[in-house]
Automatic annotation (TrEMBL):
<dbReference type="GO" id="GO:0019563">
    <property type="term" value="P:glycerol catabolic process"/>
</dbReference>
<keyword id="KW-0324">Glycolysis</keyword>
<comment type="pathway">
    <text>Carbohydrate degradation; glycolysis; D-glyceraldehyde 3-phosphate from glycerone phosphate: step 1/1.</text>
</comment>
<dbReference type="GO" id="GO:0005829">
    <property type="term" value="C:cytosol"/>
</dbReference>
<keyword id="KW-0413">Isomerase</keyword>
<dbReference type="InterPro" id="IPR035990">
    <property type="entry name" value="TIM_sf"/>
</dbReference>
<comment type="subunit">
    <text>Homodimer.</text>
</comment>
<dbReference type="GO" id="GO:0006094">
    <property type="term" value="P:gluconeogenesis"/>
</dbReference>
<comment type="pathway">
    <text>Carbohydrate biosynthesis; gluconeogenesis.</text>
</comment>
<dbReference type="InterPro" id="IPR000652">
    <property type="entry name" value="Triosephosphate_isomerase"/>
</dbReference>
<feature type="active site" description="Electrophile">
    <location>
        <position position="94"/>
    </location>
</feature>
<dbReference type="GO" id="GO:0046166">
    <property type="term" value="P:glyceraldehyde-3-phosphate biosynthetic process"/>
</dbReference>
<keyword id="KW-0312">Gluconeogenesis</keyword>
<dbReference type="GO" id="GO:0004807">
    <property type="term" value="F:triose-phosphate isomerase activity"/>
</dbReference>
<feature type="active site" description="Proton acceptor">
    <location>
        <position position="166"/>
    </location>
</feature>
<dbReference type="GO" id="GO:0006096">
    <property type="term" value="P:glycolytic process"/>
</dbReference>
<dbReference type="InterPro" id="IPR013785">
    <property type="entry name" value="Aldolase_TIM"/>
</dbReference>
Length: 249
């Protein structure tokens, strides 16, 4: 059975000062539930202070990284740098990276492979646009994104992956998917993973739902058999709403 993960994606919010404030607002909350992990992914510039002040029960993640170790890639951050800092997770292929920064399935694959090499756990985001959904392409798009993201990764590393199903039309819009619809796609993702490895391995991979998750709808997702948590943007920015989500997990 896959572990449950509640992961916050701060996007381009919370510099070092606000990160410190978030952590001090969180200081009276202690979270310890078996098989549930809490993760926050601050911007790169806030990761060092986050790593320094983070309580033991909370894990860290980056929101992106480049697919090379080092070199002439002005403005980029490498997986080696993240691993040296002790960062545990890295979000790869978020729809904002794919849509606004033109990241392709091939870039996602390169990032996944080098993340695994450095012991970082990729949170691989997949999901269809509104137009693709309207044209009944959801399964096709998601299957392609999953397969391409992990092609040429060895079977044994499958257990080190996390997926997030994030329908693009639901991100930051307040138009969350229904639990039933999200479950159908997450079941499909698990089926694809199972066909690429084996069923036991596929059952161990956490598949998160993301897209306008809030305390009022989280339980609807967590009650689905193939949804093992949430990737949360807006509602992870405030320590109180983030810990409210953790309490519900
Ligand atoms: C996200 O950033 O991945 C996300 C799902 O954002 P929100 O929860 O704000 O929709």
């Amino acid at each position: 059975m896959a572990r449950t993960i509640i992961a916050g994606n701060w996007k381009m919010n919370h510099g070092p000062k606000e990160t410190q404030q978030f952590l001090s607002n969180l200081s009276d909350k202690y979270f310890d539930k078996p098989n549930v992990e809490a993760v926050v992914c601050p911007p790169f510039i806030s990761l060092p202070i986050f790593q320094e002040k983070v309580p033991k029960w909370l894990s860290s993640g980056a929101q992106n990284m480049y697919f090379e170790e080092s070199g002439a890639f002005t403005g980029e951050i490498s997986p080696k740098m993240l691993a040296d800092l002790g960062v545990k997770y890295v979000i790869i292929g978020h729809s904002e990276r794919r849509g606004l920064f033109n990241e392709k399935d091939d870039d996602v694959n390169k990032k996944v492979r080098i993340a695994l090499k450095y012991g970082l756990i990729p949170i691989i985001c997949v999901g269809e646009t509104e137009n693709e959904r309207d044209n009944n392409k959801t399964f096709e798009v998601v299957e392609r994104q999953v397969k391409k993201a992990i092609c040429d990764t060895v079977k044994e590393t499958l257990k080190c992956l996390v997926f997030a199903y994030e329908p693009v039309w639901a991100i930051g819009t307040g138009k969350a998917s229904s639990g039933k619809d999200a479950e159908e796609v997450c079941e499909k993702i698990r089926g694809v993973l199972s066909s690429m490895g084996d069923l036991n391995q596929a059952n161990e991979i956490p598949i998160l739902y993301g897209g306008s998750v809030k305390p009022e709808n989280l339980e609807e997702y967590l009650s689905q058999p193939n949804i093992n948590g949430a990737l949360v943007g807006g509602k992870s920015l405030d320590a109180n709403s983030f810990s409210e989500l953790l309490d519900l997990a």
